[in-house]
Amino acid sequence: MSIWFTEKQTQSFGITGKINQILENEKTEYQQLDMLETEQFGNMLLLDNMVMTTEKDEFVYHEMIAHVPLFTHPSPKKVLIVGGGDGGTVREVLKHSSVEKVTQVEIDNKVVEYSKKHLPHISSSFGDSRTELIIGDGFDHIIKSNNKYDVILVDSTEPVGPAAGLFTKGFYAGIAKALKEDGIFVAQTDNPWFKAELIRNAIRDTKEIFPIARLYTCNIPTYPSGMWTFTIGSKKYDPLDVDPNRISDINGQYYTPELHQASFVLPKFVQNLCK
What we know:
- The chain is of the alpha/beta class.
- The protein is built from 8 helices and 12 strands.
- A 7-stranded mixed β-sheet has the order 8-7-6-9-10-12-11.
- The longest helix has 15 residues, at 58-72.
- The model has no long low-confidence stretch (mean pLDDT 95).
- Pathway: Amine and polyamine biosynthesis; spermidine biosynthesis; spermidine from putrescine: step 1/1.
- Catalyzes the irreversible transfer of a propylamine group from the amino donor S-adenosylmethioninamine (decarboxy-AdoMet) to putrescine (1,4-diaminobutane) to yield spermidine.
- The active site is at residue 155.
């Protein structure tokens, strides 16, 4: 008998994968957490029945959320990650030699615990001396910070449950205050096929707070529709002005100097969301 998991991406559409075994199944203080061993994508982390990451395709998301802003900023030293308890974003951030400290604020310690256990390649940098892991509320941390970070990365789940407040204009305004005068932030902002209004709101709010606001995309097969967006807000540096020759080899599998520029080339229907 085969076991299959379906993430219902809308009420009438989903993506399905064959499961070899269920590794973890727990209702944490904040959300439903499942760790599955899938036949196609290796170990897979689910939160509230939504795919967060898999062993096979995780590099796309983590490289794109980290390297686009970190190569846009000329000398990022202090970086904040909100969410991202699997550890993949930390791993990519630490590939930048200028980074002196990464502070990660994850609300659910169980995400960190089970990622260390079942996703060791993704969570491999939690023990790095430059990493500070705080189990707490990222929204509160942002509000209490002032002129502190060069780059802030919002590596959140969907806008439900504990992550709902991370998609508000008030949160983006708090990020602007927590950033230094030339700071940059990036937030994952879902997909344009099913969450067009979310993207429209995110880019509009970012434009009202930051002098430079742009949207970029990548392809992640286990995420809804496969097409994923990130919203970047910058106080000074435009990601489109980055010299490709300044982008060093990060030993990645997706991000390249050419892709840095190309990821900002949007299909017309996505361009329309940014107006």
